């Protein structure tokens, strides 16, 4: 059988794209790992933050948001978003760093300044002497990532899509308008290949003979710790610290903390660096009233960026019928609904969806052409 599309990678990007494409075409989804979502998708902070990322990313987030609130009928068993809210706090000397946060306020997504007194009442684990200015963004929400991924995959299969796991793609060959995709276990034939391989996207591009997009995988660390005794945590907002990129957010009755690190690394099954974890624990105890007696869980994941830190979605500039869906950085869960629609529309209709056009996106804003050929880091 010759499929219309082979999608490589069953993280959030590949699963969502496969779902959208399967509405009108035959799709084979191929995943290297035993479980979809094993890499970046399963290791995120699971936040929907409309005002996060490059200006282009923020516009994509806005186009994703309606899907989270109102997915197609029967798509998921429960809500995809849960209210969280986010507080940005600045200590003495860092107050001006909140100017940009507050400036991003809009009528639909307000960001309001809060007094340190109100902030300390809201988040008891903050050190009073470390809070001199704060801003609150109510629209930030937790994404139920597991439900979103499961629902995309279920919907994909219901639309006739097929998925194989534990099959890393090892070769790609194009002859007479058909791709032959070779995995460790078999071969698949398709008219078009969608490259949704996350941190490995440049490696898949190289197999196809495409120019690099200059993707750099950056490791980010996270730990789960107990909240101070007696503090109910589930209703707390996510707290972003303006002095660095660190944040602390509730996670199933405990607190998740990340230093917001971004250490360039090779694509791999990312593991936390012990030194990064030690520095994070020291920072938490200095900057907050949390005492870290025990780390319940720790992990690291990769956030992959091209030079301009916006995603790369579109046809390769030199290799025919090879399409990129990569470089989602730290925003790939929240952008997934919009980018999946974009890649499907580009592939099936040769144009962007109408909401992208109305938002003044052009095909070149998203595609690899903006990076130039042989992009380097
Ligand atoms: C700590 C952390 C916090 C984050 N927080 C957020 C957040 O709050 N909100 C948000 O929106 N985003 C967040 N992100 C970013 C988000 O997780 C990623 O942007 C997103 O998961 C990328 O999805 P993906 O499908 O492109 O990549 P992945 O999930 O990595 O999927 C790529 C898949 O391709 C497969 N693959 C690779 N090579 C091959 C091959 N040769 N053959 C077959 N399959 C292959 C891999 O096995 C993998 O399953 C965070 C990331 C991290 C690490």
Whole-Å distance between the termini? Answer: 39 Å
CATH superfamily of the largest domain: FAD/NAD(P)-binding domain
Q: Portion of residues in helices?
A: 25-40%
Bound molecules: flavin-adenine dinucleotide
Q: Low-confidence runs (pLDDT<50, min 5 residues)?
A: none
What is the percentage of strand-forming residues? 25-35%
Question: Can you summarize the main beta sheet?
Answer: 9 strands, mixed
As for the number of domains, it is: 2
Number of strands: 20
Can you name the CATH architecture of the largest domain?
A: 3-Layer(bba) Sandwich
* CATH fold-level topology of the largest domain: FAD/NAD(P)-binding domain
| Discrete helix count | 10
Overall residue-averaged pLDDT value: 96
Structural class based on helices, strands and sheet pairing: alpha+beta
Give the C-alpha Rg. Answer: 21 Å
Q: Which CATH top level class of the largest domain fits?
A: Alpha Beta
Order of helices and strands: EHEEHEEHEHEEHEEEEHEEEEEHEEEHHH
Question: What form results from the Cα inertia axes?
Answer: globular
Care to give the gist of this entry?
The chain is of the alpha+beta class. It has helices at about 10-20, 55-70, 100-105, 115-120, 145-160, 200-210, 275-285, 330-350, 355-360, 365, and strands spanning about 1-10, 25-30, 45-50, 80-85, 85-90, 110-115, 135, 140-145, 160-165, 170-175, 180-185, 185-195, 215-225, 240, 245-250, 255-260, 265, 295-305, 310-315, 320-325. Strands 5, 6, 7, 13, 14, 15, 16, 17 and 18 form a 9-stranded mixed sheet that branches. Strands 1, 2, 9, 10, 11, 12, 19 and 20 form an 8-stranded mixed sheet that branches.
């Amino acid at each position: 059988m010759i499929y219309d599309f082979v999608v490589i990678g069953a993280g959030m990007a590949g699963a969502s794209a496969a779902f959208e494409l399967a509405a009108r075409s035959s799709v084979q989804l191929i995943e290297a790992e035993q479980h979809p979502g094993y890499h970046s998708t399963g290791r995120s902070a699971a936040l929907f933050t409309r005002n996060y990322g490059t200006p282009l990313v923020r516009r994509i987030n806005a186009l994703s948001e309606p899907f989270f609130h109102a997915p197609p009928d029967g798509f998921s068993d429960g809500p995809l978003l849960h209210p969280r809210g986010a507080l940005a706090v600045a200590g003495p000397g860092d107050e001006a760093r909140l100017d940009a946060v507050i400036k991003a306020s809009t009528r639909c997504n307000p960001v309001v300044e809060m007094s340190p007194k109100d902030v300390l009442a809201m988040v008891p684990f903050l050190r009073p002497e470390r809070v001199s200015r704060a801003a609150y963004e109510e629209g930030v929400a937790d994404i139920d990532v597991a439900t979103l991924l499961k629902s995309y995959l279920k919907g994909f299969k219901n639309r006739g899509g097929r998925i194989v796991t534990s099959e890393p793609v090892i070769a790609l060959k194009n002859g007479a308008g058909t791709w032959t995709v070779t995995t460790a276990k078999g071969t698949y034939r398709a008219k078009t290949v969608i490259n949704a391989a996350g941190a490995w996207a440049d490696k898949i591009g190289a197999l196809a003979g495409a120019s690099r997009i200059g993707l750099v995988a950056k490791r980010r660390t996270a730990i789960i710790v107990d909240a101070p005794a007696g503090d109910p945590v589930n209703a707390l907002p996510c707290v972003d610290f303006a002095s660095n990129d660190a944040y602390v957010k509730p996670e199933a009755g405990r607190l998740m903390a990340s230093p917001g690190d971004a250490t360039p690394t090779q694509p791999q099954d990312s593991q936390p660096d012990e030194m990064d974890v030690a520095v994070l624990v020291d920072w938490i105890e200095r900057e907050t009233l949390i005492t870290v007696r025990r780390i319940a869980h720790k992990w690291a994941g990769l956030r992959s960026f091209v030079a301009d830190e916006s995603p790369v979605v579109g046809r390769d500039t030199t290799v025919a019928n090879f399409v990129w869906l990569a470089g989602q950085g730290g925003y790939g869960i929240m952008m997934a609904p919009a980018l999946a629609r974009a890649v499907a529309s580009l592939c099936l209709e040769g144009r962007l969806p109408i909401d992208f056009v109305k938002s003044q996106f052009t095909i070149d804003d998203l595609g690899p052409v903006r990076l130039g050929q042989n992009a380097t880091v």
